[in-house]
Amino acid sequence: MTEINIGDIIPFSLPDGSGGRDSIFALPAIDQEEFCLIDMAALESILPEVEKPARYTGGELNMCKKATDVPIRFLFAFPDVYEVGMSHLGTSILYHMTNEREDTYAEHTCMPFADMAAKMCENNIPLYSLETFTPAAEFDIIGVNLSYEMCYTTALNMLSLAGLSMNAAERDGLPLVIAGGACTCNPEPVADFFDLFVIGEGEEVNNELLDLFRVHKQRGFDKQAFLREASEIEGIYVPSLYTIEYNHDGTVSRIDGKIVKRRIVSNMDTAYFPGKIMVPFVRPVHDRVTLEIFRGCSRGCRFCQAGFIYRPVREKSAETLFKQARELTRSTGYEEMSLSSLSSGDYSHIDELVCGLVNEYAPQRISVSLPSLRVDSFERDYAKKLQGAKKSSFTFAPEAGTQRMRDVINKNVTEEQIMSAVRSAFESGATTIKLYFMLGLPGETTEDVEGIADLVKKIRSAFYELPKEKRRGRLMLHVSTSCFVPKPNTPFQWVAMDTADSLREKVHYLREELRKLSGVKYNWHEIYLSILEAVFARGDRRLCELLRRAVANGAIFDSWQEYFRPEAWENAFAEMGLDKDFYAFRERGYDETLPWSHIDSQISGEYLMRENEAAKRAETTPDCREACNGCGLEGRCGI
Amino acid sequence: MNEIYRIGLRFGREGMTRFNSHLDIHRMFGRALRRAGLPLVYSQGFNPHIELSFAQALAVGLATKGDYLEFALTEKLAPQAVLDAIEMPEGFCVTAAGYLDKRQKKLMAAVTQAVYELRWHCADCEAKKALDSFVAADSFIMTKKKQGKPARQFDARPRLLEVKLGANAALVRLSLDGESSLSPFDLLAALGGAGEADILRLDLMTGSINEPSSLETLFMQTAHK
Predict the structure, then answer these.
(1) Residue ranges of chain A with pLDDT lower than 50?
(2) Which end of chain A is more exposed for a tag (fewer CB within 10 A), N or C?
(3) Whole-angstrom Cα distance, residue A41 to residue A91?
(4) Cβ-defined contact of A27 to B63 (cutoff 8 Å)
(5) A241-274: b or e for each residue (b if 16 or more CB lie within 10 Å)?
């Protein structure tokens, strides 16, 4: 055994003082005491006890550091876990854009997972910002992104963790709690909770809102006066200024208030796009440079909300994209870049762009990926350039199993196209293929569900038809089905969702059919969750109470399987005597006042009706690039 | 095959960055080196990556001013130029760079010990007193639980190689040699004082128990920040 020689070998001296240590590197460290308002000692004592504590410590590369004595302090609060929030492109754009303003310091935070949230409550630590560890309630404005209906309970829990009342009417003065994102095309189910909504794209309207806010704050903030004036800005919806009346049958009879028009950025080359983005330590869902190549989609798939609410198609020039790619790869050091849009193969200069990027970045070992590629663009040159020899896994989304069903939803893809894409994937050495389908599409018949199983079988056979020496391993087909949820601002906004029993039967059928096939794995989306999504997607203001009750019953992180509590929801429905059928399973007439009638997506209602009627006849509508279909944005679209 | 040059970095971290996991730091360094625009050696294959190798994994919660990693360059740049080109997120600092001899075994294999500073949160905490009796004892049996494995008992006393005791802090040199390693967190917990001290890794050491030297002594043409 070695003797202890106190003080001989260790060439280090003991520190003189105790307690707080200066920067060990003598770097100009931030003086946290100056503005740090949460109990840092308590925070540091709980961090070692939670999973992935670096979710809660900020300090990401390219995080904005600023003086805190600016006129406006803004907090981007994402209602999901850090890994999801940090992958959200919209928030990233707006965070950096807001920080370009000298008068505003924008910070960020996400919803802590259950283990952390519980410890924070025990230790009286409220929701705080990751830049300066300032309590959320100290901010002037909290901005919440609502990109998915099932984040609503998480958003409300986040307000509670911030120590704020959920109800906008009960919050006096600041902070203002505002929301934006895809769900704001029907903000009614969350109308009670937010002071205002930003409808549409934020690149311009956010700055207009902050300009107005600054004036109001300087003159002594009066919330009502501010909201009234803010509602004059195009794209700003202040729900408290509206009265909704209902008919005896529960449908909306009258919406008293002006129409709010969705904001649309007209030029994507001049629209703000950050030259640097935060690089999180904890691996986010999308751990790469995301380069948005265009907004909108010309395909017109009738089930797809994004395909309508982000119209019109507006492309960035290849020149802009090359420049943005250069800035972002340099400022982040990322090893992967993904081109993002709703259907990247449709970009006008896709060959030039992909080949240019691959040639420029291959020497730097930066890979380029195109996540949303349709089967019909699979065999083009650029697709082959991307695939190289390394890709062993492909994802295809036929969405439906029969041609009739694909025509109903206007997917505009034929079985031959699917099969030829799959065959060339197998020939290139792929062994894993993911297939996405939807169940419960309008007018779906037994034949259409059987068609899914048949298509899977055909795809499976295509692999075994390949000569043995060409197959590079064992086939793995991952088949996933989701439940179709009718969404506002789509041609299917009037249709009834398929019932739970019917969906369960279809899942059961596919499970039995696909179970027999070796190398095929079948996953299906939780049916109850889809029904809730359907309730909120087309719901009205009366659902705010349902949300309050669900949250009181413990609902949070609904889209996380391990946290989803159907009983919290079932009890909330029962307490209110509320009818799910009314919201989810009821077909609406064209003459019904839809709850979101005052939110103008700028997509023409007549166009949506025409599309719904065409769907009933299983007639397809061509891509806007072939012929204009008169969606209401003619003349403002980049095609 | 072109010549490659092995280079080592000494780095530290402090503040909230100590809650980042080892994997997070691995990715972070890879990206910092890419941003620095260095002529890096990449692995072969379809997914080329920088072959970064750390002397030791950094436990979540541990601050350090003496950790090391190595990688390789295709050109022999001045270590000072390498040091100057690397920009780290706040809270991290690369403090030295130097070349490693071709025949030098990996830093990972060279490490034998580590020196830590334990700075007590209060003058008369339990762990501080317990450390006195630990030093005086002939043996000190600790129980180590690893996930999915049965608890294992071992004598921790021989793994504590050296101690300096001060009023507010202690310096400890602990064995870091595969199976006979002792974590300062486990030590503190065994002394009954988990969370009673700030732990800072001062340096990683190579060499024998009686003649240890800093891992940095393996660097050649060392440049400092």
Answers:
(1) 1-7, 18-20, 28-34, 389
(2) N
(3) 30
(4) no
(5) ebebeeeeeebbeebebeebebbbbeebeebbbb
B217: left (phi over 0), alpha (psi -120 to 50) or beta: alpha
How does pLDDT run across A487-500, given as a tens digit for each residue?
999 999 999 999 99
CA proximity to A58, closest of A32, A26, A21, A22: A32
Residue that the structure tokens 């620095």 belong to: B36
Nearest to B60 among A7, A18, A48 (CB): A48
pTM, rounded to two decimals: 0.94
For helices A202-218 and A89-99, give the axis angle rounded to 10 degrees: 40
Helices A500-515 and A446-465: crossing angle in degrees, nearest 10, is: 20
Q: Tell me if A580 sits within 8 A of A573, measured CB to CB.
A: yes
Burial B207-218 (b: 16+ CB within 10 A, else e): eebeebebbbeb
For chain B, the straight-line distance linking the first and the last C-alpha, in angstroms and rounded, comes to 33
Q: How far is CA A198 from CA A216, A230, B60, in A?
A: 18, 10, 40
* Token digits of residue A151: 């984040």
Looking at the partner chain, which of A16, A24, A283 has a beta carbon nearest the beta carbon of B200?
A24
- Are B7 and B82 within 8 A, CB to CB? yes
Instruction: At A303, list the tokens.
Output: 């089930």
User: Nearest residue of A to residue B210 by CA position?
Assistant: A9
Residue among A301, A297, A519, A510 at smallest CA distance from A410: A301
**Residue A465 corresponds to which amino acid?**
E
Dihedral sign for Cα B127, B132, B133, B139, please: positive
Output the pLDDT for position B107.
96
Work out the mean pLDDT of chain A and round it to a whole number. Answer: 92
Chain A CA closest to residue B90? A59
Intra-chain end-to-end CA distance of chain A, in Å? 81
